[in-house]
Amino acid sequence: MTGTPIANVSDTARWVAYYRAMETERPDAIFRDPYARRLAGPEGEAIVRAMPKGATFAWPMIVRTAVMDEIILRAVSRDGVDVVLNLAAGLDARPFRLPVSPGLTWVDADLPGILEYKRQQLAGERPACRYRPHAVDLTNADARRALFREVGAAGRRVLIVTEGLLVYLQPEQVAELARDLAAQPSFRWWLIDLASPWLLQLMKRTWGKQLQRGNAEMHFAPAEGTAFFSPLGWREVEFRSTWEESHRLKREMRFAWLWRFISRFQSAKKREEARRISGIVLLERS
Q1: Which tens digit of pLDDT belongs to each residue from 88-101?
Q2: Class in CATH terms, 59-285
């Protein structure tokens, strides 16, 4: 027995899908994913119940989903994005649930098994745009670069999405991925989520044993923040603090009011460090 229903890193997609189902079923939901519970399955619920503070820590995942929804919709409607490439797409159903343009091309890239599971669960559902799943092992450099060349040639203004992916990679793997993405001139923007070293240690203390047993350890949380990407061809153009966005969206952690009160007595440097503990970041080619 592993002590947790997480058997491999792909199972984290069921975990996060169940968080989306939790939010969808609220009467005051800030987004609705009618496919989330179906995609999470009973395994997703079992993971949340088995993980320490599993339900308590739903709020940052819910905030991340809502903020990324906003940025993606804005990129398509305002910035003319014609292709979205979702790497390690997992059980994300955005091309089916978001009101995107029918002319948009959406490519989900992930391992064959998880894409086939998603295909089965969404059989009969109509995506809002041109949808194409692409089975690929992103750790295979040749296969990854071939996919990037293909997608790069198909679009003029491409948005890359990596939600919940980078934290599971080693820094050198993230750097290699960043360089490969920057090699495609049409890859204009890259939407990521980013944790700080402090948050990484908190997550390891809370979930480390369960994730390690499931071969899904967390690694990436650069001390330099988004400056990590500067020499790799990318620069920060927008940082949405998970903490601040949780207040805006009314999905805060318990006792958030107390932490806001304490922050009034901190220096500007400390407050900035606190707001960057976790965030959703839009990068642009530099």
Answers
A1: 999 999 999 999 99
A2: alpha beta
